[in-house]
Amino acid sequence: MKTAIINGRLITPHRMMDQAGLVMEDGVITEIVRGRRPEADCYIDAKGAYVSPGFIDIHTHGGGGHDFMDGTSEAIVKACHAHLAHGTTSICPTTLTCTDEELLTFFKCYREAKKQMENGPELLGIHLEGPYFSLEQRGGGGPRTPNI
Questions:
Q1: Own/partner pairs for 16-22, CB < 8 Å, 24+ apart?
Q2: Residue 103 CA: distances (Å) to CA of 20, 72, 74, 94, 111
Q3: What is the mean pLDDT of residues 68-91?
Q4: CA–CA distance, 104 with 49 (Å, rounded to integer)
């Protein structure tokens, strides 16, 4: 099925295109058009709004009232869906400085969330933020930072 987004302001890697559109087939952009109505099975009128690629967030601690360190896969899924509502299509959940036990719980929850994720952003990996990388730079992680 061909879906066309028409009457938009397309953001491309090279320029902005006003009063433009695009055609997608099976989730892949197959054509960019300007000045004509493309052939498609379904039309979405952008009404002059921006049409852009999905955003990739590589450093975020949660969203929608959920923290990725809440200790449940449900929190991860719900936070990811909150980001999707604002255009984030891929995400790397970020941990906090924490205990080993909390970190291992997060890893388990992340694996579960990755299996459970439906119609949400793609989980690209984990952004580890913690006290384990540089003793010289310790202490920037907030209240969970252990005394080293």
A1: 19/48, 20/51, 21/46, 21/51, 22/51
A2: 46, 12, 16, 11, 13
A3: 96
A4: 43
Confidence bin at 140 (pLDDT 50/70/90): low
Backbone CA torsion sign across 46, 47, 50, 56 = negative
Judging by DSSP bridges, how do beta strands 88-93 and 66-67 pair with one another? unpaired
Query: In the structure encoding, which two tokens stand for residue 130, read together?
Result: 């913690």
Distance separating alpha carbons of residues 38 and 98, to the nearest angstrom: 53
**Helices (DSSP H) in the chain: which residue ranges?**
73-84, 100-116
Strands 2-11 and 62-63: unpaired
Q: Which residues make beta-bridge pairs with 56?
A: 90
* 3 state SS of 65: coil
pTM for this predicted structure = 0.74
Would you say 2 and 25 are in contact if contact means Cβ atoms under 8 Å apart?
yes
CA neighbor of 23 nearest in space, from 41, 47, 48 = 41
DSSP output for 7-44: EEEEE-SS-EEEEEEEEEETTEEEEEEESSPPP-SEEE
Q: Mean per-residue pLDDT for 51-72?
A: 95
